[in-house]
Design brief:
alpha/beta; Rossmann fold; 2 domains; seven-stranded parallel sheet; three-stranded antiparallel sheet; binds nicotinamide-adenine-dinucleotide
């Protein structure tokens, strides 16, 4: 616990128990007019010179205040209602709460380098996993798809101290080769790969599956499935000490989910690809697993018509009676990247509040 004895920080207490719910307060070094900034704890907050009165920030204390139900969603949280962490910080940097939360679960990725594919914005599953990996001590190389995504993705990526941003369109073999050449020069060895990438043309994710086009089928499988094989082939020579590859799938791979259409077929192929890759790469001590996440409102998910119904049905029927939080997918990614999961390969691990076990 903190640090009232730390004279160079101003501690900002929550004003009341109501105000403390789902909020975080920041104490800025050298900040003279204490304020409380509220934000959802799965979110992030940006410090700015307007908040700091223009003074230079070197460090910031984050006080997390979480009501009991909220904490129940984050079993990895070990501390009490009010706790603080000291993190390095400069004016304008983004402070992540998910990362702070997962820090308490694993701390064993220090000295390891992970490559995360698929950060589009702060709602991306790739971003939640990246935050968890960062909190667990990993060096991070994070990729985004193209110039159109560059600004938003880079702002996020560079807000994680030490993380580096790289552009890579996984439908392009030359870009994959170029990326891994850069990663080899920059990091030498790699230990974990997170493949959180999928795409199908929007018109394939509405209407009848029987109308799937040849081109839509090809594109969905190329970007969402083949790319995992291509990335593993390029990464394996750099994973000299073995390691872990993680990809993202969904229940629509095995049961019919209206409108998921060709993406369901692609996810089935992806899960099968995970098993074949696990067999091939096992001899190099590289594990390959998929996380099957329940529905989460992200950019990709918004492309599926009927997402609202999907979320509602999951929350009603899942044993835990709610939808999964992206931070829970993030912490499972950290588990799969770490040696805590050293005996697991070729698996599809469900992080869906139990929805998949229900028969009715
Ligand atoms: N959101 C959900 O409900 C959900 C549930 C289960 C699984 N998933 C899977 O999680 C993964 C991540 O999706 P998300 O929900 O975080 O959405 P997202 O839109 O944030 O992420 C998808 C990413 O794929 C990237 N991408 C698409 N085409 C690419 C290409 N050619 N080259 C490089 N990158 C490319 C996008 O730029 C984006 O960063 C996907 O595989 C998705 O199918 C999502």
């Amino acid at each position: 616990m903190v640090s009232s004895e730390r004279k160079n920080f101003i501690e900002i207490p929550a004003t009341s128990s109501t105000a403390a719910r789902n909020t975080a307060s920041f104490a800025f070094e050298g900040f003279v007019n204490p304020q409380i900034f509220r934000t959802n704890c799965s979110d992030a907050a940006r410090t700015s010179s307007s908040v700091t009165g223009g003074s230079k920030l070197n460090r910031v204390l984050i006080f997390l205040h979480m009501p009991t139900p909220r904490r129940a969603h984050y079993p990895c949280l070990k501390y009490n209602d009010s706790a603080a962490r000291e993190v390095p910080c400069e004016a304008g940097s983004l402070i992540s709460f998910c990362g702070q939360e997962t820090r308490y679960m694993f701390d064993d990725l220090k000295g390891k380098t992970a490559v995360v594919f698929g950060v589009a914005n702060k709602r991306s599953i790739a971003w939640a996993i990246a935050q968890g990996l960062h909190a667990a001590g990993a060096n991070l190389a994070i990729t985004y798809q193209n110039e159109r995504m560059e600004q938003e993705a880079k702002d996020l990526i560079l807000s994680l101290p030490g993380a580096e941003a790289f552009m890579c369109d996984v439908s392009n073999d030359a870009e994959i080769a170029g990326l891994f050449e850069k990663l080899k020069q920059r990091y030498g060895k790699l230990h974990a790969i997170v493949h959180s990438v999928a795409f199908a043309p929007a018109e394939e994710l509405k209407g009848d599956f029987v109308n799937t086009t040849r081109e839509g089928f090809r594109v969905a499988h190329d970007i969402s499935v083949y790319s995992l094989i291509a990335v593993c082939r390029a990464a394996a020579p750099l994973m000299e000490d073995g390691g872990s590859v993680i990809t993202m799938t969904y229940y629509g791979a095995e049961k019919v989910v209206p409108h998921y259409n060709v993406m369901g077929v692609a996810k089935a192929a992806l899960e099968c690809t995970v098993r074949y890759l696990a067999q091939d790469l096992g001899r190099k001590k590289i594990r390959v697993n998929a996380i099957s996440a329940g529905p989460i409102k992200t950019l990709a998910a918004r492309g599926i018509s009927g997402l609202g119904d999907m979320l509602k049905s999951h929350a009603e029927r899942a044993p835990l009676q709610r939808n999964v939080e992206v931070a829970e997918v993030g912490s499972t990614g950290v588990f799969l990247a770490s040696d805590a999961s050293s005996g697991i390969t070729g698996e599809t691990i469900y992080v869906d509040c139990g929805y998949n076990i229900m028969g009715f």
